[in-house]
Design goal:
By secondary structure, the protein is α/β, with parallel strands linked by helices. The protein has a single domain, classed as TIM Barrel. It is built from 15 helices and 13 strands. Helix 3 packs parallel to helix 5, helix 7 packs parallel to helix 9 and helix 8 packs antiparallel against helix 9.
């Protein structure tokens, strides 16, 4: 069957992970600025204050994109750069940066794909309750208006949220990401408020001329430790509900899965009758981020969650110890296609990648053959899904550059391009050349 005409090959990044310049041109603090500067939160005290200095070096990075031959580039717009306090007037200098970036991409024949929220919530909104506060959804729609009014004439593809499940789970439930709250299942209102913000932002974007609008979810196929164990199967079902269905069912079906049965607050306390119609506004595509499957077992007595996560045996692993499981991507795409059937919009693989401890060799090259193997296997899995009839329209590798990898700081390296954080020297890895050649021959 082959890939569809106009298939988009791209790479992805996120603002806080690469931009730096956190106090320049009127940018306000985000939850990640606060979190990273709190002792003990990020490995070795690393912060995104400078990161890859993309804010100043973006022309060099656009040249790398052009050399790669991608048709599209997925980046995020830093909310605190555009609206420093999370509400009120726009910071024109902040939007000027994205103006320059978008124009630079277009001048090189690269289609901009903008994500509005990749986890960098303005700190003042978090001080008012963050995503636990319903008002944040309305502030997000206001931000979407400001971004689209300036950029929708040139940015064709818009993504409202990136991985809202990670914000809910890692940020508000487990406390390992910003803002570092440990609410466990009491964090469930953050799911609804993010989804409400998504629905409101869809309307705001469409009202200002945005052509393609969707969101990006993180998915991880749930595998019970023991298929023969009813308790382990229930644990896997609970994980699947929270990880894979909670942020998809409301958008595509207009209903929530039965999260009340898992524990946590009664949804009637934070879901209003009119909300689901807003959330279920039609979208043009669904972004799929995939890294690994998850193995589950039944929790012990008194555990705060209805499942316990485990390692997945039987696979080679990345530098972070994650299983390299391209069959998980294939099963995920099949599941989405079967679960949502005719209601499923076109899919884009919006993130897929791996970290290895890459180093520049004596000859000045980075021979990351393991990454090439990872990308080859996952792209092959995607192609199999397309051959079976799953409507996948694009693939974005994570990431263009080595960058600030959240709570792990600068230790993991996910990039096709190596970054020396002391000198900011960019060195394309062997995987960069492989991806370039693969795109050219596809």
């Amino acid at each position: 069957m082959g890939l569809p005409d106009g298939f988009r090959w791209g790479v992805a990044t996120a603002a806080y992970q690469i931009e730096g310049a956190v106090a320049e041109d009127g940018r306000g603090p985000s939850t990640w600025d606060t979190f990273a500067h709190t002792p003990g939160r990020v490995r070795d005290g690393h912060t995104g204050d400078i990161a890859c200095d993309h804010y100043h070096r973006w022309p060099e990075d656009v040249a790398l994109l052009a050399g790669l031959g991608v048709s599209s580039y997925r980046f995020s717009i830093a909310w605190p750069r555009v609206q420093p306090s999370g509400s009120g007037p726009v910071n024109a200098k902040g939007l000027d940066f994205y103006d320059r970036l978008v124009d630079g991409l277009l001048a090189n024949g690269i289609s901009p794909a903008a994500t509005l929220f990749h986890w960098d919530l303005p700190q003042l909104l978090e001080d008012a309750g963050g995503w636990m506060n319903r008002d944040t959804a309305y502030r997000f729609a206001e931000f979407a208006c400001l971004a689209a009014e300036r950029l929708a004439d040139r940015v064709g593809m818009w993504m409202t949220l990136n991985e809202p499940v990670v914000v809910m789970a890692y940020g508000y439930a487990f406390g390992v990401y910003a803002p570092g709250r440990t609410l466990m299942l009491d964090a469930l209102p953050t799911a609804h408020h993010q989804l409400l913000g998504h629905g409101l932002a869809v309307a705001a974007l469409r009202g200002r001329g945005a052509r393609e609008v969707g969101l990006v979810n993180h998915y991880s196929p749930a595998r019970p430790r023991d298929e023969a164990s009813p308790d382990d199967r229930r644990a896997a079902l609970a994980f699947d509900t929270l990880m894979n269905r909670l942020f998809t069912d409301p958008i595509l079906d207009g209903t929530y899965p039965d999260v009340a049965a898992l524990g946590g607050p009664d949804p009637a306390g934070y879901v209003r009758p009119e909300d689901l119609a807003v959330i279920a506004a039609p979208i043009d595509f669904l972004g799929v981020n995939y890294y690994q499957p998850t193995r589950l077992k039944a929790p012990g007595a008194g555990a705060p969650l209805p499942f316990e996560m485990m390692g997945v045996p039987g696979y080679p692993t990345t530098g972070m110890g994650w299983p390299i499981a391209p069959d998980g991507l294939l099963s995920l795409l099949r599941t989405l296609d079967e679960r949502y059937s005719t209601r499923l919009p076109p899919l884009y693989i919006t993130e897929n990648g791996c970290s290895f401890p890459d180093e520049v060799g004596p000859d000045g090259t980075v021979d990351d053959v393991d990454r090439i193997g990872f990308l080859y296997a996952h792209i092959a899995a995607m192609r199999t899904a397309v051959d079976e009839g799953v409507d996948v329209r694009g693939y974005f590798a994570w990431s263009l550059l080595d960058n600030f990898e959240w709570a792990e700081g600068f230790h993991p390296r996910f990039g096709l391009v190596h970054v020396d954080y002391e000198t900011q020297r960019r060195t394309p890895k062997r995987s960069y050349a492989w991806f370039r050649d693969m795109i050219a021959s596809s």
